[in-house]
Specification:
The chain is mainly beta. The protein has three domains: about 5-165, Cathepsin D, subunit A, domain 1 (Beta Barrel); about 170-315, Cathepsin D, subunit A, domain 1 (Beta Barrel), CATH 2.40.70; about 330-405, Pdz3 Domain, CATH 2.30.42. It is built from five helices and 29 strands. The protein has helices at about 75-80, 130-135, 290-295, 350-355, 375-380, and strands at about 15, 35, 40, 45-50, 55-60, 70, 85-90, 95-110, 115-125, 140-145, 150-155, 160-165, 180, 185, 190-195, 205-210, 215-220, 235-240, 245-260, 260-270, 290, 300-305, 310-315, 330-335, 340-345, 360-365, 370, 390-395, 400-405. The strands form four sheets. Strands 4-5-10-6-9-8 form a six-stranded mixed beta barrel. A hairpin with a 4-residue loop joins strand 4 and strand 5 (about 55-60). The radius of gyration is 21 Å and the shape is globular. The relative contact order is 0.16.
C-alpha cells in the first residue's frame, strides 16, 4: 500500500485459447543491427510506435507478456480495426474473467527503425490497466518481447537503447558480460537462482525475467516453505494488474544470485496465489519474477534461440534498493497527470502520525508545487534518507493543511 508499490503494474495475461504466432519486427534489408531508443519512466521501458501508419502510441516493452496488448479500445475502434473473436482473459489475481478481442494483421512501426507488418494482438474491452493513474505516464498497451525474439536483443538501461542484432553478425566484444542459462517457455524467459530469504536459509527458485514489472523482485509465498515474508514485512498493495489490486506483503530478502552475480537486501514483494481451478501450465512452476528495478542494474542481452542471457553490471549495480519512507500510496490523475491523490496511508507510519488521510490531494512538497512534479519526482522525495523532514501541503474538503513528515525506514 506504500507509495512506491502502486505503479509497479504486474502485467500478466492468461489466454484460454492461444492465438497464432506473431511475425515480429524486421530490420531493413541488409541491416545487421539497429538501435531503438526508449524512455525509462518509473522503471518501465516505454517504446514509441505507430499502429497502422497513424499517430504515435506508447507501449511498455514486456518480456513477461506472451502477447502484445492494446489497452485502449477506442484507438482500434477509431482505426476501424476488425475483431476476429472474443477471448476470456484471466486477470492477475488468477480468478477474474476479463474480455479481450483478437485483431489480426496489425502493422506496427518504430519510425525509421523497424516494421512489424502483420501482428496478431489482443485488444482489451476496457482499460483494465489504468496505466496513467498508477504509473504516472501515458501508456496505450504492452509490447511482447517476442516481437524482437528473432534477433539477439541488448537492453542498455543507462543509454536508454535496445539494440537488435542479426544472429550471424553478433559478436560479444565487451568485457564483463557473463552468460546465464535460461528456460524459454511460451515466449518467456525463466532463470534458476539461489535465494537467501534470510541470512541463515537458502533455496533454489525459478524466476520469470519480466521487464513489464517495475519492482525488483516478487515471490509467490505459497510455492516453497522458505519463500515467505520476513517477520518485519508490511501488508501492502503490491501493484495493479488485470483484475484489480494485487495484495500481499513487502519486505526484504537477504540475497539473490543470478548466475555469478549477487544482489543483497532486496526490496521484495510477496503474493499468495489462489490457484484453485487455474491451469498451472501458465505458471510454469515459477516462484516469482525479477523486474526492471533489479534488471536495470545490468546491461542485459537476451537470446531466445539459444536460451541464454548475458549480464554485465552497470553503474547502479552496487546501489541500495530504496523503498518509500513516508507510508503513503499515491495515484495520479488529470490531463497532464499532475493531480496527486493519497489512496492509502499505512498505519503507524510517518504519514499517518501527522494526520494525512486517504483522499488528500498533494498540493506542495517543500517549496515545490505538485503541479510541476511527476509521480517519479514525488517517489524520489519520499525515499530520501531516514530522518529527513518533508514539508507537505494537502487539500481536503476545500481546505489546505500543512504537515511535516519525518521519513523513516518501514521495511
Amino acid at each position: 500500500m506504500l507509495t512506491k508499490t502502486i505503479y509497479f503494474l504486474w502485467l500478466y495475461l492468461w489466454v484460454v485459447t492461444p492465438i497464432s504466432g506473431q511475425s515480429g519486427f524486421f530490420m531493413p534489408p541488409g541491416q545487421k543491427q539497429m538501435d531503438i531508443p526508449f524512455e525509462f519512466t518509473n522503471n518501465f521501458i516505454i517504446l514509441t510506435v505507430t499502429i497502422n501508419g497513424t499517430f504515435p502510441l506508447k507501449f511498455i516493452f514486456d518480456t513477461g507478456a506472451e502477447h502484445t496488448i492494446l489497452s485502449k479500445r477506442e484507438i482500434s475502434d477509431l482505426l476501424n480495426v476488425q475483431y476476429e473473436r472474443e477471448f476470456r482473459v484471466k486477470g492477475s489475481d488468477l480468478k477474474t474473467d476479463l474480455i479481450a478481442y483478437l485483431a489480426r494483421k496489425i502493422r506496427f512501426d518504430i519510425p525509421d527503425k523497424v516494421v512489424a507488418p502483420r501482428e496478431d494482438i489482443l485488444v482489451l474491452q476496457e482499460d483494465y490497466f489504468r496505466f496513467e493513474e498508477y504509473a504516472g505516464v501515458n501508456v496505450h498497451g504492452i509490447m511482447s518481447a517476442n516481437v524482437f525474439s528473432k534477433y539477439i536483443t541488448r537492453i542498455n538501461y543507462e543509454r536508454r537503447v535496445i539494440t537488435l542484432f542479426e544472429r550471424n553478425a553478433f559478436k560479444l566484444r565487451d568485457e564483463g558480460f557473463l552468460p546465464v542459462p535460461v528456460e524459454v517457455f511460451r515466449n518467456k524467459m525463466y532463470v534458476f537462482s539461489s535465494l537467501q530469504p534470510m541470512r541463515d536459509s537458502s533455496t533454489q527458485v525459478k524466476l520469470l525475467i519480466d521487464t513489464g514489472a517495475g519492482l525488483p523482485l516478487l515471490l509467490f509465498s505459497n510455492t516453497h516453505q522458505l519463500v515467505k515474508p520476513p517477520p518485519n514485512a508490511i501488508v501492502s498493495n503490491i501493484g495493479m494488474g488485470l483484475g484489480g489490486y494485487l495484495e500481499g506483503f513487502t519486505g526484504r530478502v537477504s540475497n539473490l544470485e543470478i548466475g555469478k552475480f549477487s544482489q543483497s537486501n532486496i526490496v521484495t514483494y510477496f503474493q499468495t496465489l489462489d490457484t484453485a481451478g487455474v491451469n498451472l501450465e501458465y505458471l510454469n512452476g515459477r516462484n516469482g519474477l525479477i523486474g526492471n528495478a533489479l534488471l536495470s542494474r545490468f546491461i542485459v542481452i537476451l537470446d531466445y534461440h539459444d536460451s541464454k542471457i548475458w549480464l554485465k553490471p552497470g553503474r547502479d549495480y552496487k546501489n541500495e534498493f530504496l523503498y518509500d519512507r513516508s507510508g503513503m500510496n499515491i495515484i495520479t490523475s488529470g490531463n497532464t497527470l499532475n493531480n496527486f491523490i493519497v489512496q492509502t496511508v499505512l498505519s503507524n507510519s510517518p504519514a499517518s502520525e501527522v494526520g494525512i488521510q486517504k483522499g488528500d490531494q498533494i498540493m506542495r512538497l517543500g517549496l515545490t508545487p505538485a503541479s510541476v512534479l511527476s509521480l517519479s519526482d514525488i517517489q524520489r522525495i519520499l525515499q530520501k534518507k531516514p530522518g529527513k523532514k518533508v514539508r507537505i501541503v494537502v487539500r481536503r474538503d476545500g481546505k489546505r493543511y500543512r504537515k511535516t513528515l519525518t521519513l523513516r525506514d518501514l521495511i
